[in-house]
Amino acid sequence: MIALLIRDLRLALRAGGGFGLGLAFFLIITLLVPFSVGPQSQLLSTIAPGVLWMGALLACLLSLDRLLALDFEDGTLDVLATAPLPLEAALAVKGLAHWITTGLPLVIAAPFLAVLLNMPPQGFAWLVISLALGTPALSMIGTFGAALTVGIKRGGLLLSLLVLPLYVPTLIFGAEAARRGAAGMAVETPLFVLAGMSLACIALLPFAAAAALRMTLR
Amino acid sequence: MSIWEYANPVRFLALSAKVQPFAWAAAAIGILVGLLWGFFGTPDDFRQGSTVKIIYLHVPAAWIAINAWIMMLLASLVWLVRRHHVSALAAKAAAPVGLVMTVIGLLTGAIWGQPMWGTWWAWDPRLTSFLILFLFYLGYIALWEAVEDPDTAADLTSVLCLVGSVFALLSRYAVLFWSQGLHQGASLSLDKEENISNVFWLPLIISIAGFTLLFLALVLYRTGTEISLRRARAISARLEPRG
């Protein structure tokens, strides 16, 4: 498992692996928002938590079609499916690698972008915590979506159509926690639900993803 | 004699052919009686005036929209566990019907909402959940269309339906948490306190029964079409010279 994780990370970090692409996308999306809604700092600070969550979600989505597609094309997935390591574990590791290369940089970058959007400083910690708790769920849901669509030619658009509705609950609770944090309200309830959802996704979705992948590879 | 006998497409089609005329006729009668009685035979509401009458379209459509998904969930489970092709095809056949009913529910709701709430759309929990349900239907149908191998398509859509159901339910509660609503509470429930008054109740029930029968008839018909399509494809594959 660790070998697989290191392999995935190394592939992602290598040139052409797409590492940093999600981060750059996140940056650009966030910078485009003031251009589209106007530079009033009052307005920006109100919508900042939601915008940052939305940007993080889209950045996660962007890198999903690379998650399994390359391994599918060169046959790595067939090897993984017949390997002694259960496919569920392999997919969980792939989700983890996706989170480390996409989710974690987003979490770290978020407070810097929050400054640009004039978010109240009291919300920075909650924004980071909510993203840190929520992005693992986004990665795991994305792994499931990628497993569903990996065998389909030009499945990228379809992947977005399938995954975005599944992102709804995570987005609602995550953005709600960040918003409440920025407004100085109590954040415990949405944060706990968010953490629970992430844990449930990590625990259960590898099984669904492995089932879907086996159907495609059969 | 068990229900699994009808997993055989021939048996299923025979039964379907017997049931369908009755289902179509009863659906037509139910919808006609329900709507006509509802539109002409019931008094205007005290506050809402005649706009209340759209309820005879709105509630049945919403009812089918939700129950079509539940039926697809059950059919998907049957397919995954027992591998009956009829079951997978029935789920496929039900999806567009559910999608259309969701759209009808949303549109009639908007038409009703405009005079009553002064807005076509509000980010109310019920409305938002329906919009999310609409997205789930779209994704499900798109996945069916995208996968070429029919058995793989049935497998993948079944898994999506299972996982999607969990997330749809989760979204429902997330949305409740997220926003307070304009929408009234349940129109019909076993708890009598909440029910709408008797004058409106009976035509509504008849209309719902009519829509349910219409759903049954449509799904039977469309499943039959899918089975014929599958057969036609098998025959043409056999006739094609091996390359």
Describe this structure in words.
The complex is a heterodimer of chains A (218) and B (243). Chain A has 218 residues and is mainly α. Chain A has one domain (2-217). Chain A contains 9 helices and no strands. Chain A has helices at residues 2-13, 21-37, 41-62, 65-73, 76-82, 87-116, 124-149, 156-182, 188-217. Chain A is elongated. The mean pLDDT of chain A is 87. In chain B, α1 (9-41) runs antiparallel to α6 (198-239), α3 (85-117) runs antiparallel to α6 (198-239) and α4 (125-146) runs antiparallel to α5 (150-178). Chain B is globular. Chain B is an all-alpha fold and 243 residues long. Chain B is built from 6 helices and no strands. Chains A and B meet through α7, α8 and α9 of A and α4 and α5 of B.
Keywords, please?
heterodimer, A: 218 residues, mainly alpha, 9 helices, 0% strand, B: 243 residues, globular
List the helices and strands and how they pair.
The complex is a heterodimer of chains A (218) and B (243).
Chain A: H1 2-13, H2 21-37, H3 41-62, H4 65-73, H5 76-82, H6 87-116, H7 124-149, H8 156-182, H9 188-217
Helix pairs in contact in A: 1-6, 2-3, 2-6, 3-6, 3-7, 3-8, 6-7, 6-9, 7-8, 7-9, 8-9
Chain B: H1 9-41, H2 55-82, H3 85-117, H4 125-146, H5 150-178, H6 198-239
Helix pairs in contact in B: 1-6, 2-3, 2-5, 2-6, 3-4, 3-5, 3-6, 4-5
- The shape of chain B, in one word, is globular
Count of discrete structural domains of chain A: 1
SS element count, helices of chain A: 9
* Element string of chain A (H = helix, E = strand): HHHHHHHHH
| Number of strand segments of chain A | 0
Provide the helix percentage of chain A: over 70%
Strand coverage percent of chain A: under 5%
Mean pLDDT over the residues of chain A: 87
Helix percentage of chain B: over 70%
Distance between the termini of chain B: 44 Å
Structural class category of chain B: mainly alpha
Strand content of chain B: under 5%
Indicate the structural class of chain A: mainly alpha
Low-confidence runs of at least 5 consecutive residues of chain B: none
Compute the separation of the termini of chain A in Å: 23 Å
Number of helices of chain B: 6
